[in-house]
Amino acid sequence: MKKFVFFALATLLACSCGILASTGSSSSSNASSSSSGALGIRVAKGVNTESVTLTKLPTSVSDLSGVDITDPYVTSALVVAALMQYESNNAACMEMLEYLNGPNTLSGYEKQFLGERLRGKFYKVRSFFSGATPANNYTPSKPYIVKVTSNPYSFQSGGYATLYLTSGGSDNPRPIKLRKKESTGEWFYNEITFLADIRTPAADDPWR
């Protein structure tokens, strides 16, 4: 009788451990990849989509230097994050864009282009963060989240990619072009192509 009770208890214990192990394995398989660092970056991956969360926005190149940019989706989100310094600290913004531009150097034309696109319309940058809509004058939710997507044609050209940034002021995601540095596997932006006009924020809309 004692042997039977001992055997039953051992079997029950083994089954319980198996269930616990199975549950732990299942939850870990659904966990999204993450990246630590000064910005507290987390990446939630879906099908052809990544939502990049930043606990805080970068204010200098030193904030970016520790971030793994072998993921082009992360690089795309960082370009938006760097542009958030455009009005308050333009010099720091340009330095960060230089860093995210890789071996390329920002030309005078590119800096002029940014000025023309953002002058009086800085809300365009804020629109790429989750929670920012025309109704709330493009005020982002916190933590800051940038949704980046791809399509079947995004990676067709070797070493180049075109990804898309979701804006709260546009029906369609806006493109950003990137290029891969083969020796390091890092992705840098190649062209900022996502700053076309969007819906006017409520505070500036004469029809409201």
Structure, briefly:
The chain is α+β, with helices and mostly antiparallel strands. It contains six helices and six strands.
Give an overview of the whole structure.
With 208 residues, the protein is an alpha+beta fold. The protein has 2 domains: 1-31; 42-204, no CATH class. Helix content is 34%, strand content 18%. The chain has helices spanning 2-29, 61-64, 72-83, 90-100, 108-118, 123-126; strands spanning 42-46, 49-54, 144-149, 160-165, 174-181, 186-192. The protein has a 6-stranded antiparallel β-sheet with strand order 1-2-3-4-5-6, with helices on one face. Helix 3 (72-83) runs antiparallel to helix 4 (90-100). Residues 1-31 have low confidence and may be disordered.
Strand tally is 6
- Distance between the first and last residues' Cα: 84 Å
- Determine the fraction of residues in helical runs and give it as a percent range: 25-40%
- Quickly give the structural class: alpha+beta
Summary keywords:
2 domains; alpha+beta; 6 helices
Topology (elements, then pairings):
Layout: H1 2-29, E1 42-46, E2 49-54, H2 61-64, H3 72-83, H4 90-100, H5 108-118, H6 123-126, E3 144-149, E4 160-165, E5 174-181, E6 186-192
Antiparallel strand pairs: 1-2, 2-3, 3-4, 4-5, 5-6
Helix pairs in contact: 3-4
